[in-house]
Automatic annotation (TrEMBL):
Keyword Transmembrane among record annotations: yes
Superkingdom classification of source: Eukaryota
Chief location category: membrane
Protein name (Swiss-Prot/TrEMBL): 3-oxo-5-alpha-steroid 4-dehydrogenase C-terminal domain-containing protein
PANTHER family per UniProt: DFG10 PROTEIN (PTHR14624), POLYPRENOL REDUCTASE (PTHR14624:SF0)
Pathway: Protein modification; protein glycosylation
Keyword set, alphabetical order: Membrane, Transmembrane, Transmembrane helix
InterPro entries cross-referenced by the UniProt entry: 3-oxo-5_a-steroid_4-DH_C, Dfg10/SRD5A3
Topology term for the membrane: Multi-pass membrane protein
Length: 339
């Protein structure tokens, strides 16, 4: 089942990346295909001139992505965390911590024990790593939910293509799952087992959980440098996205019309047209680094985010150049000094 889930997730990410990459190739023969992919990806201001308004939903439905993401990520995080706590408590503490640091440093000679023991201790470390990555995801989707509710002033006539809407819903199911896919099947088994026991045997006969905050949090603090470098990159992008979203949300204040578009200034808007997309790429790059870079599924997730947002940023940049004669000429689309 594990290979099945991992394989499915990878196939889905590749299926999402390929059309965008092909549509981005600079061949005139691909013009029609580029137009089609762009129609699906359009939203808000760049959708104003679209002839396909029938197949659209309001752009404020973006909040649905984050409502679902918060519920799903919280569920995965809690299950993984409790599962990690239970499995870690099965191993004597000194062996567990030495195996964590050795595993994260890429060491293969982790335990001078039987090979089977070595595999299971490696796996326990990967479960704690999943908890760490899901914590980062939780921090991201919680902020995004609050922003869609309290920061952005969505234009009532702003729309997005229904295909983009469904892709967004899929993204926020698959992205948190990709961060814990190596342990997801056994974790689901653990979760359903606990629930079944609770239903069949009742609360009183279930194994009592002796809850110790120290053991619940301490393995996370003992993770390696990769995780802390990744978290630093993540929060660097996170803070800039917060600032750029605050700028976007404030553009329609002070008596400006709810449907009016203006040139944003400040923070990374001084160098690129879509700094909030750039920040999102940095946030996911932080997750790749925090994962240790060895999980191909997380790389595919990152590649999808890059392809999707670079594609959208290119169109947004063209829209700004068409709309405003006085648009700052030094601004690029998304990657400072490059693109
Ligand atoms: N992980 C992923 O694959 C993924 C995919 C998509 C989005 N996202 C993230 O979600 C966030 C929001 O994305 P989005 O595409 O919805 O952003 P967006 O199109 O830039 O819109 C964000 C908000 O700002 C307003 N706005 C944008 N430009 C404006 C301007 N020049 N003047 C006035 N108001 C303006 C929009 O108004 P309207 O209501 O009129 O549009 C909307 O309310 C981004 O940070 C992005 O990174 C992530």
């Amino acid at each position: 089942m594990e290979i099945g889930l991992v394989g499915l997730l990878r196939a889905a990410w590749i299926a999402g990346i390929l059309p965008i990459v092909i549509a981005s190739l600079p061949y005139s023969r691909l013009g029609l295909f580029h137009g089609l992919v762009l129609e699906f990806a359009k939203r808000g201001k760049i959708m104003q001139s679209s002839p396909y308004h029938k197949f659209t939903v309001p752009q404020r439905f973006f909040s649905h992505f984050y409502m679902m993401a918060v519920v799903w990520t919280t569920l995965l995080l809690l299950t993984t965390w409790i599962y990690a706590y239970r499995t870690a408590s099965l191993v004597p503490e000194p062996y567990f911590y030495s195996s964590i640091s050795s595993y994260l440093a890429g060491g293969s000679n982790i335990f001078p024990f039987h090979k089977l023991h070595l595999i299971s201790s490696e796996h326990r470390c990967s479960i704690w790593l999943s908890v760490f990555l899901l914590l980062l995801m939780e921090v991201q989707v919680l902020r995004r939910l609050l922003e869609t509710m309290y920061v952005f002033n969505y234009n009532p006539s702003a729309r997005m293509h229904i295909f983009g809407y469904l892709t967004g819903l899929y993204f926020y199911v698959a992205a948190p799952l990709s961060l814990c896919c190596t342990c997801a099947p056994e974790m689901f088994k653990f979760g359903t087992n606990e629930i079944t026991q609770f239903i069949v045997k009742g609360k009183d006969t279930m194994q009592a959980i002796e809850f110790d905050w120290y053991d619940f949090v301490n393995p996370l603090l003992k993770l390696g440098w990769c995780q802390w470098v990744g978290a630093t990159i993540f929060f660097w992008g996170w803070i800039h996205q917060l600032r750029c979203h605050a700028i976007l949300g404030s553009l329609r204040e002070h008596g400006r019309g709810i449907d009016e578009y203006v040139i944003p200034y400040g923070d990374w808007f001084e160098i690129v047209s879509s700094p909030h997309y750039l920040a999102e790429i940095i946030i996911y790059a932080g997750m790749v680094v925090a994962s240790g870079g060895a999980d191909l599924t997380i790389w595919f997730l990152f590649a999808f985010v890059v392809a999707n947002l670079v594609f959208a940023a290119a169109e947004t940049h063209r829209w700004y150049l068409r709309k405003f004669d006085n648009y700052p000429s030094n601004r690029l689309a998304i990657i400072p000094f490059i693109y």
